[in-house]
């Protein structure tokens, strides 16, 4: 599996290029009996979809997913689930410049070196278009987790360029084009993005995802810790350069007395750990953060080399997100759902008969 | 494989508890013909070994590794390599307090909930003692990578509590008890650690690892990107709460013009990406950073619950590192070596016949 | 991966039911640069296709495969390859009998018990229809193996019911509806099948596959031996109940002097081993045999139980092969190609730099 | 994992050569809470142990297994279990002949070609000595399966050279040196083996394994069928050349009416399928058969080539089993236990909440 399969028991294998016929995937290991239709998956696809606001790429894709198998009379059968999304807006374009030069900050150069050739149309396999299938597959996981365990997964932008959100009110998060939970920042965000677009530049972002009602005991000690698998999942999203659990890099300057989450019979006092201890879920909320780089596809000229290794200048025209972090929000949610689903099945496999011999401590004292 | 196997083609499967008879592992997939003996692995084990300075745990372990198989007449045969390290200093101790209560910030609570029982002696499987085998296995990978590709892997402390290093001079990194590459900070570090110990507290740290002479083309697009697998590896080290490649979380506030590493025929102008584009190595240096939390084993009383779920206070006596980040340096190096080795074999499997059709760009313009 | 992914480096993940919208799959790990189009895959699909002779099921499927990704400008890119075959002949039918009873010898009962529900239309996922995608994926492997190593894979019927083939002449194998390499048996086969059909019964078969020009050194010692993985692949084909390498079950009565394949500088004297020693290919021809049971879908009434556990009688009407062994020939070839391709990449990963230090012995003295 | 790891959720990774320091392994994924000590594993090791009868190799190994981890206060903890067996009888020997020539029928030639070097002492990794660890690991699986599900696994010799057993009475199977369940054949077996030894020759054998009280629903459709994974496991045992489920190769000549196992509310009428339909267990007894070739280590001279590719003659002196099939009996049991354990955990992972909606049919009408 050269990198296109994710997970161990609940798996997703994907295919498809930005400008090919279609993208798709196979979800394997889904428990049978889950009520499922395309309508369950479309809302998250629509959240990720390009062309929905003036702050994302102008490419318009319907992103309509079809479930090709694994569902019978409205329920999952336990068989593998085929997913397909046709590419509709493969705008014909002049690729001559991209074809012969390497865009700095892109996968152009590394793909060419690794494979000896590359599908230069819109980035081919390296395009974020591939993540639409992750969102569809994550939707299946989300539904199972919510219906069977009450797990809720919520993503949002916690910083965009210099603008940090200061308040979390999820009643507005999905109602603005930035997945921003802080109403007081919406105007600033809009102004910032407008200026950025005018400038022809791009900017980074910090995306956060939380999950609540997590069953205790998910995650494997040592290598396949829950947090290690979350880090793998998130760092595997295009443009992500950093991943944190709980307090993340703030722990560097913390003391032991400050960091350790003390416990009372009424619940944990704090959640610096972000819901994971020793690689295993505590039942507290999962708190995950990630840093996304500014997209390198900008309309300001940059220095590079061409395919012969000679100096060149390049401007990436076309329809690109000035802040790829925004649309990463539903992708990050989907990846977290896939990790949780996989670990849930793994945990049931090994430990379904376990009596923990000790009470469950509430997630928090609230 | 419930979390105790790492890698896909070059794999490490480990076993062993802190206070059991021995810890050990199986390294599988090593190419044949590599000259190998215990002497090649011992130096890194000695760097990780507890009891070597007054700033790490007082536990004394010889940490002498034995190669049980896979080497014949001084060379690897291609068969699996058995590694064994006996536990020698399993000091008899009173575990009654730890046995019945959950240390805040530890895996005690999650192990008990997941498995219904736990080996409470010294943390059992959750102890960092397990990482000694990773260091031994990483030593095999390091040797192969160096001899066949010239790859050099170097770890160091880049911040300890409030003290940030400002200069990198690796001629001193391995000659001080902090793996600190900045001579001007050694006195401050020593003073800080002395105060911390007196206080009975612990502190976090930032560990960095770089690797040079990286072959171009390592890493798989989409899920098993080189950076995603590095994140998995590093977040799987005890106490790690965050992982960054290149500029990491600094990218949040960067613009596209600032972040993209421009290219010239003489080399890349910058390395904000940390050596990976689109999940694939660029040939530039790998730059990896991680945040380690302060150990929760401190001698300042904390609030917790006992096994019956009732309120309790707990002090963790015993021999513990006030800053676990320090000894994590050789562990992080080993994990990076394992990831690189695995991806090297994967790359050779799929792409050994590829002609890249384009020149290699030097890592930097120096 | 709940059983729908095959292989480790060169992988196939499949989906799709007999009477769903489509069947499909993802091939991952294909080396880049292989010239590939649908035309390369269609011939084997046509060989497997139902409705091509009066001795296979009357179901008519065009079985036209579409390559959805992973190929650009006529060559594989190294990215995952999406394959899709639409189901066209999902004849509307009365499933009420099959729905409520378990056909003896079928997967009906076990699917219901394992999953709590099942797609009863034409067997759903347990239908041999699923194997069409294996044939398409195997076609990719076959092409790579042939173009890069000269490997040829050839399957045939070596016994059908009581009729054993006695002569192998592959110039006729693909020109008769039985994949029979012995012209002298064609009349007997035709008569036997005609009688069988009249009787409303079915019969078993023995299928053989050979592969020539096998590179030396494929296969991993211990668990993932080449022969072990071939056994896994073949026993994973619908209706297979036995697998043999080389002399197979005849070895039970052989003596050591008789079985061991002696060696001369001009080549091996014999090939009792079937091309594998110690789990690793010798360079001799691979000789694989398998036994396929008679299909249980027959029009002679059988005793069973219904979904409430009560006695019932059942006749399986519909369009079924009286000898499923016949159409298994291209499937077995495809599975062998997938195994060889996977082990080729694995071998290159670990051993691409090996100098064997000893001459290659020719496959045979001819 | 280059072939030295077996299984997906319940895994065994092994190491060790015939004449090295020790052999060992890591068992991962064992459910916690299983009472376990070395005493549970030793009986099967003693059954496999060489030197226990005059009909097996004269090599004497205590084969005392040590559990190095994963067990605390007499119970498994859920952590990985380290197993170690020291090699004690590594008789010093003259290997000059074996070193420079390839024994026909051995892995000598293929190991040399694949790896460029080999551990020629006693066959190194290709020696059946490696299987001792499989037997130890299988003992853990056997105990879990028996205590939690009542599963019993029983192996025996069903044919040795020309002598076929005709009666199965398992009260004597483990009380004779042949694992023969037919008392009337014991004298013939003893005479045959005595003659064979005198002749300096070896002979093949057929080994059978049955398992009873199998839970319904084990096995995954398509590639990882229960029978496919059993075939993988058995063909991965040294010297095995064929594997059958149920009627095996007899199905070739069977008709559908004859083969299909009809069902009544009181149980299945027959068990031609050997306990698996559509890759999933029916609850009937598992019936597995395998063919083992005669060992090639015989004291009758054979033709071969030396390491320079020149003609040579070779006699394999030393301590070898004239019929390796005999000692394969406990190995085959162990491998079946490992497969069942793995599929049990996989099944629990995906389907632990399933209500089958239909009664369980008894395994047979008895």
From TrEMBL, chains A, B, C, D:
<feature type="binding site">
    <location>
        <position position="278"/>
    </location>
    <ligand>
        <name>FMN</name>
    </ligand>
</feature>
<comment type="pathway">
    <text>Metabolic intermediate biosynthesis; chorismate biosynthesis; chorismate from D-erythrose 4-phosphate and phosphoenolpyruvate: step 7/7.</text>
</comment>
<dbReference type="InterPro" id="IPR000453">
    <property type="entry name" value="Chorismate_synth"/>
</dbReference>
<feature type="binding site">
    <location>
        <position position="48"/>
    </location>
    <ligand>
        <name>NADP(+)</name>
    </ligand>
</feature>
<keyword id="KW-0456">Lyase</keyword>
<comment type="subunit">
    <text>Homotetramer.</text>
</comment>
<dbReference type="InterPro" id="IPR035904">
    <property type="entry name" value="Chorismate_synth_AroC_sf"/>
</dbReference>
<keyword id="KW-0274">FAD</keyword>
<feature type="binding site">
    <location>
        <position position="319"/>
    </location>
    <ligand>
        <name>FMN</name>
    </ligand>
</feature>
<protein>
    <recommendedName>
        <fullName>Chorismate synthase</fullName>
        <ecNumber>4.2.3.5</ecNumber>
    </recommendedName>
</protein>
<keyword id="KW-0288">FMN</keyword>
<comment type="similarity">
    <text>Belongs to the chorismate synthase family.</text>
</comment>
<dbReference type="InterPro" id="IPR020541">
    <property type="entry name" value="Chorismate_synthase_CS"/>
</dbReference>
<keyword id="KW-0285">Flavoprotein</keyword>
<keyword id="KW-0028">Amino-acid biosynthesis</keyword>
<comment type="function">
    <text>This reaction introduces a second double bond into the aromatic ring system.</text>
</comment>
<feature type="binding site">
    <location>
        <begin position="125"/>
        <end position="127"/>
    </location>
    <ligand>
        <name>FMN</name>
    </ligand>
</feature>
<feature type="region of interest" description="Disordered">
    <location>
        <begin position="37"/>
        <end position="56"/>
    </location>
</feature>
<feature type="binding site">
    <location>
        <begin position="238"/>
        <end position="239"/>
    </location>
    <ligand>
        <name>FMN</name>
    </ligand>
</feature>
<dbReference type="Pfam" id="PF01264">
    <property type="entry name" value="Chorismate_synt"/>
</dbReference>
<feature type="binding site">
    <location>
        <position position="54"/>
    </location>
    <ligand>
        <name>NADP(+)</name>
    </ligand>
</feature>
<dbReference type="GO" id="GO:0004107">
    <property type="term" value="F:chorismate synthase activity"/>
</dbReference>
<keyword id="KW-0521">NADP</keyword>
<keyword id="KW-0057">Aromatic amino acid biosynthesis</keyword>
<feature type="binding site">
    <location>
        <begin position="293"/>
        <end position="297"/>
    </location>
    <ligand>
        <name>FMN</name>
    </ligand>
</feature>
């Amino acid at each position: 599996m050269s990198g296109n399969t994710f997970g161990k028991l609940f798996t997703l294998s994907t295919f498809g290029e930005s400008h090919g016929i279609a993208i798709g995937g196979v979800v394997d290991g889904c428990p049978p009996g889950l009520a499922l239709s395309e309508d369950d998956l479309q809302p998250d696809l629509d959240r990720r979809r390009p062309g929905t606001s003036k702050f994302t790429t102008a490419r318009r894709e319907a992103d309509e997913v079809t479930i090709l198998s694994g569902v019978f009379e409205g329920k999952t059968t336990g068989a593998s689930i085929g997913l397909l999304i046709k590419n509709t807006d493969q705008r014909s374009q002049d690729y001559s410049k991209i074809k012969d030069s390497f865009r700095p900050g892109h996968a152009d150069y590394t793909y060419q070196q690794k494979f000896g050739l590359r599908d230069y149309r819109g980035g081919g396999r390296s395009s974020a278009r591939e993540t639409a299938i992750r969102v569809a597959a994550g939707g299946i996981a989300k539904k199972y987790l919510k219906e069977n365990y009450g797990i809720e997964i919520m993503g949002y932008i916690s910083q965009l360029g210099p603008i940090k959100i200061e308040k979390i009110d999820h009643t507005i998060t999905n109602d603005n084009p930035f997945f921003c939970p802080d109403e007081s920042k919406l105007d600033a965000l809009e102004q910032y993005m407008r200026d950025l677009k005018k400038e022809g530049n791009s900017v980074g972002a910090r995306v956060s995802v939380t999950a609540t009602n997590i069953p205790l005991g998910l995650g494997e000690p040592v290598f396949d810790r829950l947090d290690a698998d979350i880090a793998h999942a998130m760092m595997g999203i295009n443009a992500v350069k950093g991943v944190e659990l709980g307090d993340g890099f703030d722990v560097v300057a913390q003391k032991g007395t400050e960091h350790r989450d003390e416990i009372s019979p009424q619940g944990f006092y704090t959640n610096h750990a972000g819901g994971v201890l020793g690689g295993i879920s505590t039942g507290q909320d999962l708190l995950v953060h990630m840093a996304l780089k500014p997209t390198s596809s900008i309309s300001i000229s940059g220095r590079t080399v061409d395919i012969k290794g000679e100096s060149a200048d390049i401007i990436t025209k076309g329809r690109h997100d000035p802040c790829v972090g925004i649309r990463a929000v539903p992708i990050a949610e989907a990846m977290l759902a896939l990790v949780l689903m996989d670990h849930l099945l793994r945990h049931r496999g090994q430990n379904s008969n376990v009596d923990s011999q000790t009470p469950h401590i509430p997630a928090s004292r609230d």
